[in-house]
């Protein structure tokens, strides 16, 4: 059984002054327009849950939400189903989908210039068979490093483990030097050899 | 356990900030949950889950019929969810959802790959911190990171793929939770008052008896052949609502009796209650069932239900219908007969041997070493969320969960807080909250501070702002209107006015269902709503029927009745108006329901009449979009650009007249002597008017003779199934024939109440049928343009 469940979060650049209600309209539009290359299903409204996932776009492949966890607003992409290929190629495919969503939101006039910081992202292993305190997390780090190098096109990528509590999933903050635009990252990914 | 094929393994140096070349890209292979948890799951539970997983494989191979598999998965709590037929209206039209394996079904018209709901039974609401952690984990990994507490103390996860359910079940089983019989035609979660054992008013603690009943009947051979579900509830007292015994198939209220100078425990036992489309109060089966007779009596009831309950017609397959058919005396005789014939089972009394030993303990010392000064909002939180236990020095704390939801992170945080302040003395509630019991009173300020830190320190639990709602159109396949969307709006508005602290109205309840099926328990609240649709012009408009007359007390004994349908977007104003008038005009110590009765429903309706109107689509489109949604509230192809003006048909007029008549019937109910008879007659008249209106769409010359109307209605709408509901078939059509056949029978107030409910449902079904017929007409019109238009275009 492969490790294939993970989440990726790209943080919005502050200051963020977005009314979450707008994501309801936007995500419904995405479904109507087939804006993402996924099987889009529905929009879930969790704005009433304090520090919850806010408004969520549900697809067969993922849950995409505007997340306020860790007190940092951003786009959380949770990959759900099985993917084909190596761990690195799965991570890259997931990154591409998350970035595509970020790009769509950046272009969205209703969000008044919402921008994401492509220079870092939070990677979460959404599978507790891999315990955070296990030595076996090292291979994840190695493979994630490889994926990050492809994403940023440079070798100097830092990975910091941010898991602190026993029940937390493995979380790694991946950062490149300086800020990088979402478009640039998508270019890097789309040029990669398949 | 991780295996990585052909890559650098654990011996690799730390890589933080470093640059290390890896070898070829590989897959990271993990041990399965089945292997990892093999020694932590009870063998019987492990076997059941393995069996279920095998049945999933057989279904995928086509070796199990989809209908059979549907019941198999339902009995594991794996439920369908909205859009699982692969179709969704996106506001402009109905579109296919391109699930990957469209031909593979997990039930009739239910696609395998469509996400579903996982219901998790929590018997009597009792839950441990270890279980809370695992529930949080599975919500994060398999669902959308939200846990939902239901009105029957279950926990539900949404948007779960069926392929993930065996592992999900294994992880729950490893901490002692089974999802077995959470859905399907089985004994559902056994509920109980969340204050059992600590309540100041209870006769005795019903936790042990509810737990014993839950586990005795789970998987019991006598509970496997029901025509529908069977719900059981326990309460420690008669006066409060917490247990809701009166709305259950079987309900038990704690009682004691002196026998030979010894106080004996037992139960006042009720049967045949239920909400659903038409609420039935449970009937008293036995005023005192000794505790040692509880389980055999429950078993005997189950046997009678399995043997004689309806099996083919699901709409009439609950115990309440069997009871209505047999009468309580005959039902009682049959139960006693079954009881006598049962072979002895030692499990009937095993649970009693340890009943006097305490099952819960507080922490020996408060967690706060030094006094903690109360934080902001503490006093108000204490006022609404803290219950003083009968055990001096201890309190039960309600954790307010908006709409019953909390995030996985909050659930995990709550488990950590529980470990700090209590032992595993935690309960879910039917009001969709979580209660921490046995909190040292001196710990309350610190506990409040910690709850605030995870976003769960809100006041107002079990108050007017703590609005209950079923899933409605968010995820339920049967939802008509957005109950949760409305609940969220009401909650916000009422809390902004601080009504949860207003002594006069803070204890009123608002409960909302997305359709007539009552999962939100709307009949039991002082102010209830259930979702309906209306057609205005060529557009659909979400509405809610306002229900007044219920009372959140006495185990849910008083049911409300509908005043009328109000556009969803005008419900907040409706609530404001009702509350304002009550606050202005109520007499001293006059409850809300008594106030409504005094001023009369006619006056209430008149006061709300203007709010029942819907502005045209051109004037205000917001009325045609539901709360928390962006799509136009339409189904089928009725839509933009088709409107050729407001057309009010004979059917429109007739249905409106029927609405008035059924309202009059309600008023007769309040009349006292003779009122019941007049109410029944008027309810039947309302049904006939509505039916006649539909017939007029096909035969404008139909007369008003009841027998003629019924004959044509049968021929044109029943034989053709045009009137049949997509989900419950001919259930509503039968109501008019039954009412007509029983028109000369003796009437009781209870029967009259039910007949008025039935008339309302029939009229509601008439609205739906009318809308469906209009859709068909519109489709035809589009397919064949009218000659004049066609000529103009050409």
Describe this structure in words.
The complex is a heterodimer of chains A (194) and B (794). Chain A is built from four helices and eight strands. Chain A is α+β, with helices and mostly antiparallel strands and 194 residues long. Chain A has one domain. Chain A has an eight-stranded antiparallel sheet, covered by helices on one side. The longest helix of chain A is centred in the middle third of the chain and has 20 residues. Chain B is of the alpha+beta class and 794 residues long. Among the domains of chain B are: 153 residues, Sulfite Reductase Hemoprotein, domain 1 (2-Layer Sandwich), CATH 3.30.413; 139 residues, 2-Layer Sandwich (Sulfite Reductase Hemoprotein, domain 1), CATH 3.30.413.10; 147 residues, Nucleotidyltransferases  domain 2 (Four Helix Bundle (Hemerythrin (Met), subunit A), Up-down Bundle). In chain B, the strands form seven sheets. In chain B, strands 3-8-11-10-19 form a five-stranded antiparallel sheet. In chain B, α18 runs antiparallel to α19. The termini of chain B are far apart. The interface between A and B is large, with 62 and 71 residues.
Number of helical segments of chain B? 23
Q: Could you say which overall geometry of chain B the principal axes of the C-alpha atoms support? A: globular
Radius of gyration of chain B, CA atoms, in whole angstroms = 28 Å
The most extensive interface, with participating residues per chain, is:
A-B, 62 and 71 residues
Order of helices and strands of chain A: EHEEEEHEHEEH
Strand content of chain B: 15-25%
Mean pLDDT of chain B: 89
Distance between the termini of chain A: 23 Å
What oligomeric arrangement do these chains adopt? heterodimer
Shape of chain A: globular
Structural class of chain A: alpha+beta
- The percent of residues in helical segments of chain B reads 25-40%
Number of domains of chain A: 1
């Amino acid at each position: 059984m492969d490790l294939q469940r993970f989440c990726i979060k790209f943080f919005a650049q502050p200051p963020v002054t977005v009314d979450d209600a707008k994501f309801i309209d936007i995500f419904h539009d995405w479904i109507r327009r087939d804006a993402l290359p996924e099987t889009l299903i529905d929009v879930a409204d969790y704005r009433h849950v304090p520090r919850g996932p806010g408004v969520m776009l549900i697809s067969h492949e993922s849950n995409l939400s505007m997340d306020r966890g860790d007190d940092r607003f951003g786009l959380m992409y949770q990959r759900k189903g099985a993917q084909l290929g190596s761990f690195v190629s799965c991570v890259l495919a997931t990154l591409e989908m998350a970035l595509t969503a970020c790009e769509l939101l950046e272009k969205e006039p209703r969000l008044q210039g919402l921008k994401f910081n492509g220079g870092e992202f939070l990677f979460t292993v959404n599978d507790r068979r891999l315990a955070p305190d296990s030595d076996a997390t090292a291979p994840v780090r190695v493979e994630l490093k490889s994926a990050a190098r492809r994403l940023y096109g440079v070798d100097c990528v830092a990975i910091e483990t941010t898991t602190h509590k026993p029940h937390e999933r493995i979380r790694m903050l991946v950062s490149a030097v300086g800020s990088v635009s979402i478009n640039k990252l998508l270019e890097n990914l789309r040029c990669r050899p398949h | 356990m991780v295996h990585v094929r052909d890559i650098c393994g654990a011996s690799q140096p730390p890589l933080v900030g470093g640059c290390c070349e890896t070898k070829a890209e590989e897959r990271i292979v993990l041990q399965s949950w089945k292997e990892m948890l093999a020694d932590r799951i009870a063998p019987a539970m492990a076997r059941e889950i393995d069996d279920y997983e095998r049945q999933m494989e057989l279904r995928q191979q086509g070796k199990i019929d989809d209908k059979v598999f549907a019941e198999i998965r339902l009995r594991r709590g794996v439920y369908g969810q909205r859009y699982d037929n692969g179709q969704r209206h996106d506001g402009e039209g109905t579109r296919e959802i391109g699930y990957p394996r469209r031909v593979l079904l997990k039930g009739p018209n239910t696609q395998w790959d469509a996400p579903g709901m996982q219901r998790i039974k929590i018997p009597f609401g009792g839950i441990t911190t270890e279980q809370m952690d695992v529930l949080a984990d599975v919500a994060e990994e398999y669902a959308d990171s939200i846990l939902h507490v239901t009105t029957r103390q279950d926990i539900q996860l949404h948007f779960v793929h069926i392929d993930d359910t065996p592992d999900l079940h294994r992880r729950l089983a490893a901490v002692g939770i089974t999802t077995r019989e959470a859905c399907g035609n089985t004994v559902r979660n056994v509920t109980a008052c969340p204050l059992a054992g600590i309540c100041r008013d209870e006769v005795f603690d019903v936790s042990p008896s509810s737990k014993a009943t839950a586990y005795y009947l789970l998987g019991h051979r006598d509970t496997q052949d029901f025509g529908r579900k069977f719900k059981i509830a326990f309460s420690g007292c008669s006066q409060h609502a917490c247990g809701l015994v009166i709305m259950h198939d079987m309900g038990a209220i704690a009682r004691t009796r002196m026998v030979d100078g010894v106080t004996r425990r037992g139960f006042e036992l009720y049967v045949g209650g239920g909400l659903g489309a038409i609420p039935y109060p449970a009937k008293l089966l036995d005023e005192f069932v000794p505790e040692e007779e509880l389980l055999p009596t429950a078993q005997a009831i189950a046997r009678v239900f399995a043997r004689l309950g309806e099996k083919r017609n699901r709409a009439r397959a609950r115990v309440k219908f069997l009871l209505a058919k047999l009468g309580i005396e005959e039902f009682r005789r049959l139960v006693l007969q079954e009881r006598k014939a049962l072979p002895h089972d030692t499990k009937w009394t095993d649970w009693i041997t340890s009943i006097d030993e305490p099952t819960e303990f507080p922490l020996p010392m408060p967690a706060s070493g030094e006094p903690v000064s109360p934080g902001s909002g503490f006093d108000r939180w204490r006022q609404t969320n803290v219950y003083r236990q009968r055990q001096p020095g201890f309190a039960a704390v309600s954790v307010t969960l908006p709409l019953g939801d909390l995030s996985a992170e909050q659930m995990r945080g709550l488990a950590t807080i529980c470990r700090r302040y209590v032992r595993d003395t935690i309960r879910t509630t039917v009001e969709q909250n979580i209660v921490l019991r046995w909190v040292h009173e001196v710990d309350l300020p610190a506990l409040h501070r910690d709850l605030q830190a995870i976003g769960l320190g809100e006041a107002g639990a079990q108050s007017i702002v703590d609005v209950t709602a079923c899933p409605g159109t968010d995820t339920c396949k049967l939802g008509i209107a957005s109950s949760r969307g409305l609940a969220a709006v009401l909650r916000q508005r009422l809390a902004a006015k601080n009504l949860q602290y207003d002594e006069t109205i803070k204890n009123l309840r608002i409960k909302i269902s997305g359709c007539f099926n009552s999962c939100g328990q709307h009949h039991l609240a002082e102010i209830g709503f259930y979702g309906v649709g209306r057609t205005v012009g060529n557009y659909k408009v979400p509405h809610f029927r306002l229900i007044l007359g219920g009372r959140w007390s006495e185990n849910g004994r008083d049911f409300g009745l509908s005043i009328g349908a109000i556009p969803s977007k005008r419900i907040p104003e409706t609530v404001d108006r009702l509350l304002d008038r009550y606050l202005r005009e109520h007499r001293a110590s006059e409850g809300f329901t008594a106030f409504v009765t005094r001023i009369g429903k006619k006056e209430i309706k008149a006061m709300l009449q203007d709010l029942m109107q819907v502005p045209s689509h051109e004037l205000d489109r917001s009325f045609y979009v539901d709360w928390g949604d962006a799509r136009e509230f339409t189904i089928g192809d009725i839509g933009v650009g088709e409107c050729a003006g407001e057309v009010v048909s004979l059917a429109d007029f007739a249905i409106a007249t029927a609405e008035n008549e059924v309202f009059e019937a309600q008023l007769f109910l309040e009349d006292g002597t003779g009122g019941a008879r007049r109410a029944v007659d008027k309810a039947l008249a309302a049904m006939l008017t509505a039916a006649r209106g539909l017939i007029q769409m096909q035969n404008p010359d139909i007369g008003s003779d009841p027998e003629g109307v019924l004959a044509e209605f049968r021929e044109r709408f029943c034989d053709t199934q045009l009137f049949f509901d997509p989900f419950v078939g001919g259930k509503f059509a039968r109501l008019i024939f039954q009412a007509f056949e029983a028109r000369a029978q003796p009437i009781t107030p209870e029967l009259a109440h039910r007949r008025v409910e039935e008339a309302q449902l029939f009229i509601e079904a008439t609205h739906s049928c009318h809308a469906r017929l209009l859709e068909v007409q519109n489709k035809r019109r589009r397919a064949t343009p009218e000659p004049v238009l066609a000529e103009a275009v050409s």
